[in-house]
Amino acid sequence: MRRLLVLLRRHDDDRGVALAAVIGLGMIVMILAATMVGISTSGAVKTTSDRDYANAMAAAYAGLAEYQSRVNGDNTYATKYGDAAQGFSSGDVFPNKTGGNPAFTSWVTVPDSSGAGGSTAYRYAVDNSIYGQQGIVRVQVTGRAGKTTRTLVANVKPDGFSNYLYWTDYESGDPDITGEDCRNVYQNATFTAPSIGGKPVCSRIQFQDGDTLNGPIRSNDVMLICGGTFKSTVQSAVGTTDSGCSPKRTPSYQLYAGYQPEVVGSYTPPSTISAGRDRMSSDDPTVTGTTPGTGCLYTGPTQITFNGDGTMKIRSPLTLATNLQQTSPYGSNPLKCGAVSDLQGAGATVSTNLLANNLLYVQDEPASAGSGSTTNPNYYWSKYTTRNAPSACMRSSSVTDNGLGFPFTGQASGYSGTYTEANPRNAQGGSVAFSTAYGCSNGDLFVSGKVDASVTLVAENYVYVTGDLKYTTGRAASTVLGLVGQEAVIVWNPMFDRSTSYLGTTPTPFLPDNRTVSGAILSNQGTFTVQNYAYGGDRGSLTLNGSIAQRYRGAVGKGSNGYLKAYGYDTSLASYTPPFFPQPVITTYKVTSQVEVKPAYDANGNPR
């Protein structure tokens, strides 16, 4: 028995334990292997998903770029083409419908693209409902890669005049303002361009030391830069020069270290602003069917003062109808534009909210009443005679002003007594008759005050800025003012001839020094300038918060007279254009903002 027990003990080793360990390790290895396979498979799925996610957005960007190419090829594309059946485009009007563009209704493959699930694609919808008001078309673009879709919404805006602090067609003055007997031509770097028709070339106007421009500037002509500080881009279709500068100073270009002016293409201003008057027809469904509706039409000299409290006061002695009609009685007077009796009298107080995102148009007095379909309800003398006209500025030799108090009679700080404004003088010393400066039948606008609504003011003749013109405190970025004077936008700077014992008479300013003007300014046929800029001594700084676009370069000072420029670009204008603001004849469109939103479609093209 004892031997049997000994033999059994000799075989009592760990060979069974080893077997169990081997089996256990094998199971662990199998689990690890399965885990690795799972991780690898999961990683492959995640990689595919990540790639499709990125490719879907890349496809959306490709669609946005394709739409941009269409609006750049045809500047009317944004207003004519689209699919009103799309939810994003609901309520919009597209006269040419989709124009055969499949991207409005289905997926379009991105050329030379391949995602995990096949080629990537895009589709888009547009909303042009605020294009006229703010110059913006909204584009909803959806990209697809595999089963993944992503959507972005972008604002696409034309590169217009209000995108620049300063834009000019010619870098020489407007002879109608300066009094020169000259012809405007595009200059070359040495200003040796030949005269035309026997007349000399108009004098060029320079940037000088003390000028500060805090925003992008651009010109179709050679810019004469004799000094000054430029804090943003400086662009010209021809270039810049310092030829003939006296004195000559080194300009400071501060966009970045080493920056120098650039050569770019040219823009052409519109020949007329009369298209704005088309928004005054109260029986035109293409106007009345829009959110802002009709604008307001005023005739002859008109004064607008923004009160900064949601109202503005409007005086317009010659106005008989503030809206037009295509059939009899050919005119109407909506309350939002002011009662005619108030407009012709002390002034109508109207709501800026009711006219927000709209256009106020000041026209010249019509030359005749017309007849039939050409009947003009604002021909003043079809209703009044010189004997019963409620406003003084009508065909009477005894009348001395334009019905609004211009030329000015009043007091000046530091001088006792009352003075009458002397005839304005041009840079050549010539006198500008009041009948030209403040013509009784001219479509002139006189404006000042605190602006609290997005609105554009248009005048067929001159716009006079008669005092500071500023935005109210806390103004929203979308609140932008447009100021369009077809013949000129003029900073009012009246003088009176003060008698002195040793100089005879001296031109003396009525108004205090310094002036601030806010808004996007355009003179498509004329200039932006200061009245009497060559007289009256140092007038301080002309501070501009906005943009200037003009056919001819306008001076604001000469020698020791007038203003120094303190111009700053209003960055709100890069995103928002004043309502119905004129645009270049041909322009380019750019994306001003974009944001990703919830996908608008699934991979099968079904709306979400």
Please outline what is shown here.
The protein has 8 helices and 36 strands. The protein is an alpha/beta fold and 608 residues long.
Task: Tell me what you see in this structure.
The structure is a single chain. With 608 residues, this protein is an alpha/beta fold. Helices cover 15% and strands 30% of the residues. It is built from 8 helices and 36 strands. It has a 15-stranded mixed beta sheet that branches. The protein has a 7-stranded mixed beta sheet with strand order 20-17-16-24-26-28-32. The longest helix is centred in the N-terminal third of the chain and has 59 residues, at 15-73.
List low-pLDDT spans: 39-44
Number of contiguous helices: 8
Q: Helix proportion of residues, in percent?
A: 10-25%
Q: Main β-sheet, in a few words?
A: 15 strands, mixed
User: Helices and strands: which structural class?
Assistant: alpha/beta
Please report the distance between the alpha carbons of the first and last residues.
Answer: 88 Å
What's the shape? globular
How many strand units?
Answer: 36
Q: Report the radius of gyration as a whole number of Å.
A: 34 Å
Mean pLDDT: 87
Taken as a percent bin, the fraction of beta residues is 25-35%
